Amino acid sequence: MKLISFKWFYSTIKSRWVGRTTGILVCILLTGLMPNKKGYAQSGGDSGAFLRLGIGIRALGMGGAFTSIADNSAAVYWNPAGMGLLNSSRRQGSFMYRAMSLDRKQASLSYTQHLTDTGGGVGFALVHLGVDQIDGRDINGRPTGSLSDSENAILLSFSPEIHARVSVGLTMKFLIYNLAGHSAKGFGGDIGFMIHPLDSFSFGFILRDVGTRINWDTTGLFSRNVQRRETFPRSMTLGASYTSWQKWIIVAADVEAAQRRDAEIHFGAEFNLPRRFAVRCGLRNGQFTAGTGIITSFKSTRVRLNYVYLNDRISAGDMHALEWEVGF
């Protein structure tokens, strides 16, 4: 009787498992591509709109199709499960700034670090959006002085070590708002999953704003004490990506469905020219994005300067953003 080798048995089981897993995830992704029957209207006035702008120039340059990639410090925002897989430097940090139309300014600071040599990770991000010098008016239209708006989020993420090809991550959000002398505070969370059935393919999923809400302090604003609570609309995103040999070319697609909004589709691609220069492009729900990245190294430290061009969703203006990223 012929003996069956352990190596043959393992490779057979692995190939069948990978095939079934890939098939299931592809079916889920195709299901997410179906039209949203509820037909929610687009709403830029929903609570937490500033967080939907996104962070990370690399992800934004790829049209926001980053759920199944999430291999840098922006994973805190796009998919915390990405921190659990060893795809890049052990420690990464980045700072992003972009000037927007209507005198808006956005800035973010993010950092991630692997827990062990075999997986797991932690990270944080600080996100700020602000507008100053807003003309205040009373009910009769008379000037009342200048107002300001500041919207801030602190993101804390954790991804435990599970498996070399499977990861899960959690992000907790702490929110602080200040508008015309009044403040609001709140909290919420995201949960993400990622799987690499093959070296070249990756699938990701994230459920955003689970129980996220803020409570406004309206003391002195009304004649009686009125509690104002805002609940952020939940959303979920499915993503898939393919990476060519030595990561020279990466293509990705995301499907996002959210409460009170129509489904959105994101496409992106990145072309790396021998690990020194990168070109990116994408479509974020039909809006074109493009960007570049220049990479330099010093000993064990890698420095990347990223740039992205975006269309502004609420005006006819264009947006330009820069990011400085360090990996070591």
Plain-language structure description:
With 328 residues, this protein is mostly beta strands. It has one domain: Outer membrane protein transport protein (OMPP1/FadL/TodX) (Porin), CATH 2.40.160. The chain has 3 helices and 16 strands. It has a 14-stranded antiparallel β-barrel with strand order 1-2-3-4-5-6-7-10-11-12-13-14-15-16. Strand 11 and strand 12 form a beta hairpin. The longest helix has 27 residues. The protein is globular and about 65 Å long.
Oligomer: single chain
User: Number of DSSP helices?
Assistant: 3
Overall structural class, as computed from helix and strand content, comes to mainly beta
User: What count of structural domains?
Assistant: 1
Low-pLDDT residue intervals, each spanning 5 or more residues: 1-43
Describe what is shown at a glance.
With 328 residues, the chain is mainly β. The protein contains 3 helices and 16 strands.
Give the secondary structure arrangement, pairings included.
Layout: H1 6-32, H2 57-61, H3 75-78, E1 91-99, E2 104-116, E3 119-137, E4 143-159, E5 166-179, E6 182-195, E7 201-208, E8 213-216, E9 228-231, E10 235-243, E11 249-258, E12 261-273, E13 277-284, E14 287-298, E15 301-311, E16 318-327
Antiparallel strand pairs: 1-2, 1-16, 2-3, 3-4, 4-5, 5-6, 6-7, 6-8, 7-10, 8-9, 10-11, 11-12, 12-13, 13-14, 14-15, 15-16
Q: What keywords describe this structure?
A:
328 residues; 16 strands; mainly beta; Porin
